C-alpha cells in the first residue's frame, strides 16, 4: 500500500510530515483526490448560486448563471472557428469580464488556454505562439497589431479582437463617446483601431450557437493550460498543466483558507495571465463561488473606489500592492476592515509591510510560495497566530517537501542545513511542452513520487517553516514578474553602442529587485544614455524587463569556460551603488 492509499490521519499523528503540526485550525492533512476538470467548478457555482454576482468589472456586474451562459455561447463561437479538444488558444488580454468568459470557454471545449502578457512585443509573442502551436488568438484591440506582426511565422489561423470597453457599465461606455479630453484619454487606454485581418469577438459571439449544456467536459487528465515560464535558462517554455493540477491547487487553496462557498469577495488586481492571478482569481475564486471584482490593472484609486462600492474579503497580491493600499487607506480614511485574509506571493514579503497591512485591516496577511510549475502554490503561512513573517510557510495539504544537495538531487541534507527545496504533490506539473530534456532536469523520481526541483535554496526551521536563503536560478523577480537576464542581454547586445552586457537584479525596495545592466561600451563609444537604452528596449522587451539603471564596466568577469559570472557582476554593481543597501529587500 502506497502513502497515498493509506488511511487519512490527523496532522498530529503523521510523523512523515511533521510540518502539518503547524497547520491552521481546520486545515486538513490532505485534500480529496481530484476527479473532475476545472470546468465543473463553474458549472456547480452556476447551479448552486445562479443569482450571485460572479464578476464586477468597474461596476458592471454579471451573475454566475449569466457567466455560464456566456461561456457556452463563447465556446460555440470558438467551435465555429474550428477549435476542438487539444487545440491551443492564445489569450492576449488584460483582466476583464471577457477574459473570464474566454478562459472558461476554451477549457469547456476541451481546448488548451495559453496565457500571454498583453504588453508583449511582437517578437516575444512570436516565440510563444510558434512554440505552443496556437491556432486562434483572442486579443485585446491594443495587442492585435503585435499579434498580426507575429502571425506569419506561426500556426495562427484566426485573430479575434476584443473591445475592452464593451465590458464597462452602460453609463461608462456612453461617457467614452463624449467630446472631452478626459473621455478621450480613457478611451485611448482601452481601445484601438482594429486592422483588417482580425475578427471581432462581440460579433462572433452574438452570432454563435451556444454549446449544449450536456456537451462532454474534458477529462481530468486532459491538458488545460500551457503557462510560459523561463525557468533557469531564460528561454520561455510552456509548463504543461493538466486539469487535475489546476483543480487540485484550487482545492488546496480552499482547504488552506477555509473559505466557504458563496461568502467571499475576491479582488482580482493580479493579472490573470500570471500563474498567481490565474489560480487565486480565476480557478480558486470560481471553486468557492466568490464574487470576483476585476481590475484591468492595479491602481490604488480604482481599488479604493471599489472598496467603498463592494468591500473585499480576500485579496491576493504582491507586497507593493499592500504597501500602497495601506498607506492610501490611512491617508484617506478608507475602511479596509472587511479584508479578513490576504495572501502575498511572487516576491518576499517584508515584515513591515505585513504589519502595516494588518494594522489597517485588522485581518491577516501571510506569505505564500510557488512556481508556475506548481500551478502555482506549493507552500503558505498558516492563516493563524502561528504565521511566521519572513518565511515561505509550510507545504500545502497533500504536498510533500524535502531539502536536497543541489549537486545530488537524490540526497537529502541533514535537518537545519541549506539545500535545494523539492516538492511533490497533485499540483506539480507534467513537464515542459515539447522539451523532454528540460523536463528530465526539473522532475526527479524518488520513493514512488515525482519531485520538482525548485532551484531555490532553503532552510527548514522548527515547526517545519521554510526560509528562503538563496536562489540557484538567476531569474530576476521585479514587481512580481520574472525577468530572464539572457533575454534582456540579447536585446541590449544588439544596440550599436554596446559591445557586451550582463544583466543582474539588485535590491529594489518595493519592486523586490531592480533590473540593472552592466555594459561594456563598443569601441569608440564614450558613453550611452539611459534614455537611449530605454527607447531601444521598449521595442523589444516588456515594460517590466527594461533596465532601471546602467553601470559601465571595462570588462565582464568570466569563468574558465567563458561564462559570465553574474553573481560577481552583481557584487560589483552593488559596490558601485553605495546608496543601495542589501537590506532594502528583506529575505529576497
TrEMBL record:
GO terms for molecular function: long-chain fatty acid-CoA ligase activity. Its EC number is 6.2.1.3. Residues 487-563 form the AMP-binding enzyme C-terminal domain. It holds the Pfam family AMP-binding_C. The keyword Isomerase does not apply. It comes from the Bacteria. This is Long-chain fatty acid--CoA ligase. Residues 1-17, 404-418 have a biased composition (Basic and acidic residues). It comes from Actinotalea ferrariae CF5-4. The keyword Ligase applies. Residues 1-32, 396-418 are annotated as: Disordered. Keywords: Ligase. InterPro entries: AMP-bd_C, AMP-bd_C_sf, AMP-binding_CS, AMP-dep_synth/lig_dom, ANL_N_sf, ATP-dep_AMP-bd_enzyme. It is an enzyme of class 6 (ligase).
